[in-house]
Write the structure tokens for this entry.
Amino acid sequence: MTNSTYETLGQLGQASELPQDPDEAVLETVPNPHRDVDYLVRFTAPEFTSICPVTGQPDFAHLVIDYVAEELLVESKSLKLYLGSFRNHGAFHEDCTVAIAKRLIDAMKPRWLRIGGYWYPRGGIPIDVFWQSGPPPKGLWLPDQGVPSYRGRG
Amino acid sequence: MTNSTYETLGQLGQASELPQDPDEAVLETVPNPHRDVDYLVRFTAPEFTSICPVTGQPDFAHLVIDYVAEELLVESKSLKLYLGSFRNHGAFHEDCTVAIAKRLIDAMKPRWLRIGGYWYPRGGIPIDVFWQSGPPPKGLWLPDQGVPSYRGRG
Amino acid sequence: MTNSTYETLGQLGQASELPQDPDEAVLETVPNPHRDVDYLVRFTAPEFTSICPVTGQPDFAHLVIDYVAEELLVESKSLKLYLGSFRNHGAFHEDCTVAIAKRLIDAMKPRWLRIGGYWYPRGGIPIDVFWQSGPPPKGLWLPDQGVPSYRGRG
Amino acid sequence: MTNSTYETLGQLGQASELPQDPDEAVLETVPNPHRDVDYLVRFTAPEFTSICPVTGQPDFAHLVIDYVAEELLVESKSLKLYLGSFRNHGAFHEDCTVAIAKRLIDAMKPRWLRIGGYWYPRGGIPIDVFWQSGPPPKGLWLPDQGVPSYRGRG
Amino acid sequence: MTNSTYETLGQLGQASELPQDPDEAVLETVPNPHRDVDYLVRFTAPEFTSICPVTGQPDFAHLVIDYVAEELLVESKSLKLYLGSFRNHGAFHEDCTVAIAKRLIDAMKPRWLRIGGYWYPRGGIPIDVFWQSGPPPKGLWLPDQGVPSYRGRG
Amino acid sequence: MTNSTYETLGQLGQASELPQDPDEAVLETVPNPHRDVDYLVRFTAPEFTSICPVTGQPDFAHLVIDYVAEELLVESKSLKLYLGSFRNHGAFHEDCTVAIAKRLIDAMKPRWLRIGGYWYPRGGIPIDVFWQSGPPPKGLWLPDQGVPSYRGRG
Amino acid sequence: MTNSTYETLGQLGQASELPQDPDEAVLETVPNPHRDVDYLVRFTAPEFTSICPVTGQPDFAHLVIDYVAEELLVESKSLKLYLGSFRNHGAFHEDCTVAIAKRLIDAMKPRWLRIGGYWYPRGGIPIDVFWQSGPPPKGLWLPDQGVPSYRGRG
Amino acid sequence: MTNSTYETLGQLGQASELPQDPDEAVLETVPNPHRDVDYLVRFTAPEFTSICPVTGQPDFAHLVIDYVAEELLVESKSLKLYLGSFRNHGAFHEDCTVAIAKRLIDAMKPRWLRIGGYWYPRGGIPIDVFWQSGPPPKGLWLPDQGVPSYRGRG
Amino acid sequence: MTNSTYETLGQLGQASELPQDPDEAVLETVPNPHRDVDYLVRFTAPEFTSICPVTGQPDFAHLVIDYVAEELLVESKSLKLYLGSFRNHGAFHEDCTVAIAKRLIDAMKPRWLRIGGYWYPRGGIPIDVFWQSGPPPKGLWLPDQGVPSYRGRG
Amino acid sequence: MTNSTYETLGQLGQASELPQDPDEAVLETVPNPHRDVDYLVRFTAPEFTSICPVTGQPDFAHLVIDYVAEELLVESKSLKLYLGSFRNHGAFHEDCTVAIAKRLIDAMKPRWLRIGGYWYPRGGIPIDVFWQSGPPPKGLWLPDQGVPSYRGRG
Ligand SMILES: [Ca+2]
Ligand SMILES: [Ca+2]
Ligand SMILES: [Ca+2]
Ligand SMILES: [Ca+2]
Ligand SMILES: [Ca+2]
Ligand SMILES: [Ca+2]
Ligand SMILES: [Ca+2]
Ligand SMILES: [Ca+2]
Ligand SMILES: [Ca+2]
Ligand SMILES: [Ca+2]
Ligand SMILES: [Ca+2]
Ligand SMILES: [Ca+2]
Ligand SMILES: [Ca+2]
Ligand SMILES: [Ca+2]
Ligand SMILES: [Ca+2]
Ligand SMILES: [Ca+2]
């Protein structure tokens, strides 16, 4: 893979403004350099925030995304900007988590993908959301995401 | 999903009194926005308390509930009020944990559900109760609940 | 210390009902068997719950109480019943934590006492309350209470 | 389940002496309130101690017992007294751990049972003993016991 | 303290919009119920986010605020809304952390206050900012904030 | 220090029976090989058990003993047998912890000694007892005992 | 199993010298008291040390051995002496770990055995070695060894 | 295995310069002393660093490599030098991690190999890469790599 | 503070090459926005690497820098580049750690500064280096750096 | 400091045999490059082993040594060989720990030194030994050694 692989990228290494909404964000991709094998890529995004569509209050989550590429990898800076675009966007926990996964599937057409959304507690009770696009590819090595369970106090 | 989805809800965003008993609590539901896929929703409720039916003394538990929705999601504020309704209700550990799961199944008719009840020690020996409604749906991603084992002291 | 030391106790070793309110609870005491020295007694009470006086919703806390006895020790079962008596009592976090300490001081007249109240989060932000009755006695060994800080998720 | 369920119990809610030997201990049972489902009950007993039959020195263990009930649950106070009856009884680590499991099986005839015995180190080398009565029931949810491995120092 | 203590509050128990900017936020106060003693109140706010004034990118922090009240306590919902008001506001790490403390001092005139700002890493290097308004009151019990140090990976 | 230093010891390297009571136990000592300096010796004894004098039920504790020797060190096997002698002895938590310290002071006449008793929970509330014989010697290095606080569940 | 079971043992309860070499060490066995079932015995040996055959420098490891007995259990004091016999013996990490397992298989003819060797780092890179004698017996309960991964610093 | 096994090694026990580039590094091998069995060798390398090919900035990773040998083991000092050779070499996260695994496969022709690359965060989002050469050999004991998930702050 | 504060900065927001040597690196500063108070700034740099001047092998460290500003803050991107400049520079552990602190003192003239260097183990024994420029300013809040001690394995 | 500083060293960068006894070990020193300041050097040695002079059995310890240099630093390879020389040497826990500190003081004449010896348990009770040569230099930054307390099991 040479540097020219990245010549079409519009965001990497550039000063980029945060997109106003997920619809405005552009998920960019680069070719998968190891298409001959099934390997797992994991992104851990502890800085996710969105808006509750009913109350207008901010929500926060720790997100972990695992995928196996087909032809394309998602470029990580564009992923960061996409996730940042939820900052002023209304979205429920269950809906939002699964929707991010579907958007990434649209952009990359991966062999397989899953997302874990670990939301900060509301009313004393946090919600976690877990989804995968199907059974993982055979022979894939897929470690646990290892996010600690919520413990309250003490 | 628009906000009108929530127009029938009686408790969300309202000042609500704690129901006097589990029978009085109303579990409200909203449509599942991603019925096309099997995803897991996890609630962690570290603030559960009930009454021992023999001694009248309070009991405490850390509960974790996992489910896969069919048509309905349980609305989280109504869940919180339902769990709070055990506050002055007599219930044994094994019985109570499984009964909560059955009540949620009645309300949501989920594809699958499980509950872990991690009770505070009595007589130096805590009891944990684990139940699932059946084998998990194939291809479901189902992380461990990750609640630490009880360690006594030292 | 002989068993007769305990003959006046009304709650220890008896089936006891939970007092309806802190005012009804009786804190019983026993003679301090080691009045000649300053030693620290620590109670850890992870099962505390009260009611928010504004919303009527339950609140939860993990409480740790440290004291140095003068003439009296608090009998632990009566302490447990006293703490249990807040179950249906309205009390704010800051007020309630300090008030428990003052009540214990009234009952025992200890050389010194402190309380740490580690409350479960509300609105994403837990409150901790720490108070001691004065500077600790000179030469007292006073370990940290060691309750983990709140971490949210991730 | 009504309170009359417990009327035949001889130890619960009573002042009970520690049995002198495991043979003298009585394991009491109550009806399983959820016979229609396979759920797991876990007891964690960090206060187990017995005597080495060769040297007469005390041994200590942290025990965790998991089972799936058939008709009966073991009543937890009688379990506590049974475990306490090993206090002055000679028993080797491997033998004792498995024997406790077999006794519980005799008393409850459970669908399935396992025991983990985590013994304190002797000669710098702790012994753990793990046994289950057979493959766990299909569809049972069976979390790891999660007892930390021994680490020596550092 | 009666409920009338809270009658002048404009935000507690109301649906409240997030203020557009820290200047618009109103920090409300209530009378300190225990003015006769020095006790510590700790708020842990793991959901803080602001905007980098140079790049426009979001920043995240875990904030812990400790204070000893004089006449007033800060009302916790108004604190939550004040912290939320930084969501679209540009502020540097060092400046912002200390400025929040100064604003709270203006609103409450506490006997003493400190803030710990634990910022998420940028360029692989997180910044923490620690400030207190002066030496803590004599005899105050002031536990460590106990936020884990940043560890990178491995 | 030569091996002859140990010739008077009656328990080390011998098969020894557990004393029936603390009064029967013999605490043996050896000369302090480094009398010219103040150094700390710490014993950690996680295998302590005694009997509740009121109920006859077993109690358990994790004990940590720190001391600075004068002329004598306590021989560790005799310490083990002394602690083991509480196995069938009735003793309350506060009394017993301080009494062990006093007995060690009688036997060794150390420059300084402290004990931390971390008792397993009864009624959901563990008791810790901390005592030292006086302010530690100046210039002594005295690390925290570092025993984790009790956390209940979750 | 009676005490006579142990009459043929030459090392248990005796003062024993450390064997000079693994070849000189004698692994003693006792009858398996529960031959009717498959249970797991785990030894954790955090005090293993050997010599690098090339450089003569000491190596250190934390070893964990799991096995399912057939007719025989290994006597734990003889195991301790066998492991201690590597103290002045040259052996490479990979070779030594597997060789210990093979020797134990020779001595006990167990139904199944595995060993985990967690070696201290050399050149910044620790080596772990994991081996099992075959697939574990069906229906065996086999917990993870749970030794933490190496983390370097930070 | 005698010391002559190592006579052909050019780097072990020698002062060796860091290779300028992965292509210059020589992976040396030694015969597998236990070819008759499938055992796992794990290297943990927390000191990996390379250069971002686009920005020229350093990247850091914690690498864990697991393999089952066929005829050859990789000599650990040559592995260390090979990994060190990435110090001034440009390589992307996904590409680099998989490429190291492929190079090791070329050098050793192992029965099976996998690599976990745990990269330090860039833009707040770390990337992990996981690959294995195929399904693990049947009957192989393959523990989890146990590297903690990234947690940000708090 | 306005953005013009940063107009003289040459590295922030620019693509910057890693300096070839610490002498070439430029530490840039910005005005301290809160000169009226003593607050602490902490940088955690887990990605430090240098070269051993004797063997030419890479060394790694986790560095934590604490300071109290006078007129100037160090700009964090220039700090990152300065630390990165040790990548191909020879420096011993003790010397290098203290030298970094002295260089920062030259650049900022802070009221006070300290550095903790936590180096990865060599020969099984890691070295930590701790230095501060003098006693910390009175009334400064100075939390522990909280880097875990090295534990080897197990 | 130039490389010539190290020209007189006899062990660094050489193949060195382990000394047969502490008396034979040579502690080498190098000039302190930062004599103008008081900084702390910490060595963590988790691989210490010696022989019990009474029983001939091996003992193990995790040692942490802190010092402030005057004219000399101890060279770390010679320290490693010195510590390794206890491998076949008889020494009691309390005596040995303090003796190592005294030997280092003889060799370096440091401004100040302390040692923490964390010994593996014997008879279920580990011994820790802590000594410092005097009160630490004023203004020295001296972090806790942070070795976890012993916990037994569970
Ligand atoms: Ca390819
Ligand atoms: Ca809790
Ligand atoms: Ca859908
Ligand atoms: Ca007394
Ligand atoms: Ca977080
Ligand atoms: Ca039923
Ligand atoms: Ca032991
Ligand atoms: Ca008052
Ligand atoms: Ca001396
Ligand atoms: Ca690291
Ligand atoms: Ca072979
Ligand atoms: Ca970053
Ligand atoms: Ca200012
Ligand atoms: Ca260890
Ligand atoms: Ca100098
Ligand atoms: Ca324990």
Observations:
- The two ends of chain B are 51 Å apart (CA to CA).
- Chain B has one domain: 18-132.
